[in-house]
Amino acid sequence: MTPGTAQAAATSQNGWRIDPSQVAAHRIEGSRAVVELHTGAAAAVLLHVARRWHYEIAPLDTGEGGGIAAFSTDQAVGAKFETTYLSGTGIALHPHAYPLGGSEQLWPHQEAIVRDILADLEGTVIWGGDLTPPKVSHFHVAAAPGDETLERVAALVERKAGAVADPAAREA
User: Fold this and answer.
1) Which top-rank group of organisms is this from (predicted)?
2) What is the pTM of this model?
């Protein structure tokens, strides 16, 4: 599949089925923002990204920077990784501020937060700032459907739901 359109693709670039019946609306915790994502583990990890972005980088419910873009039936894509929007396994936070191939970057402290979010998710999510062409606003599920690490990490972030761990405490 090449950039342009994702016509006749049964799966997005990350291997998830393009099936709108598997997509549902989810509210981003701590905000008024609602986003459509693939249900289950994919939604859990992407909602974790969005929640932390909302609290630690910039609010997502003000409309600033284009708000949020996620599930879409628009087959036009500028890069292969944008097909993840078709399966509901990709999300763009402030997509107008940080468009595909754009020169605008996050501040160093904001990028450190993104790296911390990615560390929370143990490789199950990819950041568009690390892709070519870059899209700083973009995140997508990297793990395959049913992946054990994805399921475990999703359960963990759902259970903690934004709670900040005490670095002095030992997890049992």
Assistant:
1) Bacteria
2) 0.88
